[in-house]
Every structure is written in structure tokens, then in C-alpha cells.
Amino acid sequence: MSVEEIFEKALSENRKNLSLGEAFAVCEYYGLPLLGYRFIGVDEEVPEALGLSYPVVVKVDSPDIVHKTEYGGVKTGIKSREELVKAIEDIKRSVKAKNPNARINGFIVQEQVSNAHEVIIGGLKDEQFGPVIAFGLGGVLVEILRDVAFDIAPITPQEARDLITRIKGYQILEGYRGIPKANIDALSEVLSKASRMFADIAKYVKEMDLNPTFVSSEWVKIADARFTLL
């Protein structure tokens, strides 16, 4: 299914968001680096071999669930297949208890990341400027510091680097509390690609949220993606 078909299908169903699986498909089309994952269908048995290393994180994949944690749709620190089976059943019960009409496509399983910086790459459609790309520190820091910088999309890798250095907390990306310095070159490339993607899909999307995006000294990996439709 093409990117256009993904969005047109969602809009034809009067949806406000893409599912996580659909959002990942859009990111992959534009060459954005995703954190390795395994999709498990809602009625599929958890395989003995995931192709991932424990501990893992599991998330619900549903077009009706945007903020997954609010519905009990995320479980972390899973250390074995047995724990994963239980976590999936717990998520099913929690989601259905809080939203009985929610459609569950399945579950996204990812390796749990440590020793990497957490940043947010976002996009919004501004009435005056059109597509705008946003960058800031992720996790609890984005809510506490509200340290986010903006530019009109799309931007080049050099413009992306300039955007990254504009945030007040840039020094944290230079190395913080045992976390190595972030790979700013790789991050600039990913931010530029994300800006081009958002500029392309802005005819369908009013907000984009690639959060968390993890940055190590060697790589950049997007762990979650949300697209809010027009």
C-alpha cells in the first residue's frame, strides 16, 4: 500500500489518526530509521523466536488509541516470552476496559533502549507558514523545560543542525550523566528527512510526533510515531 493509499484509507474511515503500524510504514517509505520491531497480530501466538533481544517493550497497535499509556497500552521491561504473553493479555484487557469499541490490530514489540539520548521530532501545520518542523529534548524534559525549536519545512541537513543547536538544552546532547555524546551528524540527517516527509504529507496531516526518538553516539532510531489527520 502506498503512502497516499494509507492516508486516503484512514480519511475514508473518518479516522483522526493513523495506527502505529501505518505510521511506521509511512516513516519507512521516507527512509527514516526505526527502532527494530516485530508485529504480532491480535490473534497471533507469540513466537518463540522474536528476532529481538530481551528486555523488550510492547505497545498496542490501534487506530483508535493515540496516547497509549493512558489506556494501559504499553508495557516495558519484559524479560521473557512468558512475560510478553502476559503483558499482551494485560494490554488487551486494559484497552477494552477503557475503550470497548477500540479496534486492536495487534502489538508492536521493540527492544528496550538504554544509554541513549531521548529527543522529539515534531511537525505542525501553521495557518501562516504552512508545514513547520519542531525539535526538542524528549521524555519528561520536553514537558518540564518546554525547550523546543521550530523552522519552516523542509530543511536541509545543515539547517537541521542549526535547529538542533538552538535549543537551550543542546549541551545535554554533548554528553550527560554517563550518556555519551549524541551523533549530531546522523541526527541532522534524520531531522532533515523528517522535515521533507512532513512537507510532503501535510495535505493529509496537521500534526506529527516522532517521540521518542533515541540518539546514541552511533545511531538514531525512532521508537514511536503519531500522525494526526486533518
UniProtKB/TrEMBL annotation:
Entry annotated with the keyword Ligase: yes
InterPro entries reported in the protein's UniProt record: Acyl-CoA_Synth/Transferase, ATP_grasp_subdomain_1
The keyword Lyase is annotated on this UniProt entry: no
Gene3D superfamilies: ATP-grasp fold, A domain (3.30.1490.20), ATP-grasp fold, B domain (3.30.470.20)
Listed SUPFAM superfamilies: Glutathione synthetase ATP-binding domain-like (SSF56059)
GO molecular function per UniProt: ATP binding; ligase activity
Keywords noted in UniProt: ATP-binding, Ligase, Nucleotide-binding
Name recorded for this polypeptide: Acetyl-CoA synthetase
Superkingdom per UniProt: Archaea
